[in-house]
Predict the structure.
Amino acid sequence: MKKIISLAALISIAFTFFSCRTLKEIPEDKTAAQIIQMGQNYGGVSDYKSAEFCYNTVVERYGSDPSIYVEAKYELGRVYLAQHKYEKAYNIFTELLDLYDSYGTMLPGSYKKLCNISISQIPELRLQEIQAKNGTVSE
């Protein structure tokens, strides 16, 4: 029993140590898919700052590819949603929906639906405030 408690304490300390480190740099040889996976891994352990860094890096490096841009921006919106930064999340999801209105057939289809689902996860009163501020209405 003592070994289990010691092991749990050690794992907890290690997790705290590694989760407090914020990602500062991503090697240039990483592909968009690898960086997105890194962002998902960081988001999975609630290291949202590092996840945000990953997704912004993907947009900077590979954002000229519409499919990659949409995926990275969607993931960034999910990071904001997880942090209850609803206005930032809403702005990203509506930006992507606007892109679908203009370039729908050139973009991966699933993200349009995922953006709508994500917007529906914003608390209703907060969503109404954001839409009123932005001058938009819900569909």
Q: What stands out?
A: The CA atoms of residues 64 and 95 lie 16 Å apart. The helical segments are 2-20, 32-44, 48-62, 66-82, 86-103, 110-120, 124-134. The chain has seven helices and no strands. Residues 25-134 form a domain with the Serine Threonine Protein Phosphatase 5, Tetratricopeptide repeat fold (CATH 1.25.40.10).
